[in-house]
């Protein structure tokens, strides 16, 4: 009776359950958020498609507060409601039989157990990775944010690769602020980039909350801090620091340029040009691979050059 009452009152529709590994939802809504909106404001509904043929994994980017987490949550809730026998908050829903809904959403720690936020995040993600099946739905939000930038990108990147290459091929929504992960669409055939749309007006950001193909390049953290009421002097200083950091590293896409050079994981390894060379040349290879030229000062560059010269002096 409760299901029937809600379906009539909130205009839910009957989902179709299928044995096919697909999740195709039209004009999906979050059943809780839409009831808590201010009077006169309607929920921005979105379409979502996940399947094993062309769009197994969606990399979801967009500004802070744009609605990425809400999209993940409503996808899980609609899938669960369909399996409970309830109508769902969507115009239509084709839901493949699902055995498990895995979520890694939100930040938390385990102080009594001596576990940091990042450790809890890794424990939960490891549990997901080790228990997925071909009928699983995986929803991941900001994996890797609890550690340093490059560590986080590396972990998030390898998780996406693993979910793509594993035989189970679970349907996956992966929300992230690591815009570098957009490069995976060019490297993995069943990965697709989507973003939550927005509009910039002067120093303000208006969230349109509509899902669209393609990756986002900005998080608008400082603009969101302004909306939260941070002092103007603090925001101006944050903009100064951001400009200095971007200038120091060459451009805001410096990390993106690096990840473009990452090749997809392969089971068969090929020989490279350094195979069979001397130990001295291997030392040179190691030094060059560990050197970030974007962060070297002129003096450090000269010292590094002198170090390399010392290694090859025996060949002169």
What features would you highlight for this structure?
316 residues; alpha/beta; Rossmann fold; 2 domains; six-stranded mixed sheet; four-stranded mixed sheet; 10 strands; globular
Going by CATH, what is the homologous superfamily of the largest domain? P-loop containing nucleotide triphosphate hydrolases
Number of strands: 10
Helix and strand sequence: HEEEEHEEHEHEEEHHHHH
Provide mean pLDDT, rounded. Answer: 85
Tell me the number of helical segments per DSSP (H or I, 4 or more residues long): 9
Structure description:
It is globular, with a radius of gyration of 24 Å. The model has no long low-confidence stretch (mean pLDDT 85). The protein has two domains: 2-217, P-loop containing nucleotide triphosphate hydrolases (Rossmann fold), CATH 3.40.50.300; 279-315. The chain has nine helices and ten strands. The chain has 316 residues and is an alpha/beta fold.
SSE diagram, text form:
Blueprint: H1 2-9, E1 16-18, E2 22-28, E3 46-51, E4 57-61, H2 68-84, E5 92-96, E6 101-104, H3 117-129, E7 137-141, H4 149-165, E8 171-175, E9 191-201, E10 204-213, H5 221-227, H6 232-248, H7 254-259, H8 279-289, H9 298-312
Short description:
The protein is an alpha/beta fold.
């Amino acid at each position: 009776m409760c299901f029937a009452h809600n379906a009539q009152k909130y205009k839910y529709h009957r989902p179709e359950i299928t044995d096919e590994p697909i999740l195709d939802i039209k004009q999906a809504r979050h059943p809780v958020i839409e009831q808590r909106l201010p009077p006169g404001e309607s929920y921005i509904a979105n379409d979502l498609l996940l399947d094993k043929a062309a769009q197994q994994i969606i990399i979801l980017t967009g500004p802070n507060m744009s609605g990425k987490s809400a999209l993940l949550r409503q996808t899980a809730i609609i899938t669960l409601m369909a399996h409970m026998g309830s109508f769902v908050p969507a115009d239509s829903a084709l839901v493949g039989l699902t055995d498990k809904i895995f979520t890694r959403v939100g930040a938390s720690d385990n102080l009594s157990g001596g576990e940091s936020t990042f450790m809890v995040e890794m424990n939960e993600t490891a549990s997901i990775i080790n228990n997925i099946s071909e009928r699983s739905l995986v929803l991941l939000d900001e994996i890797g944010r609890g550690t340093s930038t490059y560590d986080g990108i590396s972990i998030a990147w390898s998780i996406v690769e693993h979910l793509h290459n594993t035989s189970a091929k679970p349907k996956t929504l992966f929300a992230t602020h690591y815009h570098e992960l957009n490069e995976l669409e060019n490297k993995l055939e069943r990965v697709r980039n989507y973003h939550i749309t927005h509009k910039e007006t002067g120093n303000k950001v208006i969230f349109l909350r509509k899902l669209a193909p393609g990756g986002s390049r900005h998080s608008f953290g400082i603009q969101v801090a302004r909306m939260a009421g941070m002092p103007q002097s603090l925001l101006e200083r944050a903009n100064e620091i951001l400009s200095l950091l971007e200038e120091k590293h060459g451009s805001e896409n410096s990390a993106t340029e690096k990840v473009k050079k990452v090749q997809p994981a392969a089971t068969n390894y090929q020989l490279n040009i350094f195979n069979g060379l001397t130990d001295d040349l291997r030392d040179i290879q190691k030094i060059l691979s560990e050197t970030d030229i974007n962060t070297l000062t002129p003096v450090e560059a000269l010292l590094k050059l002198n170090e390399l010269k010392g290694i090859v002096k025996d060949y002169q």
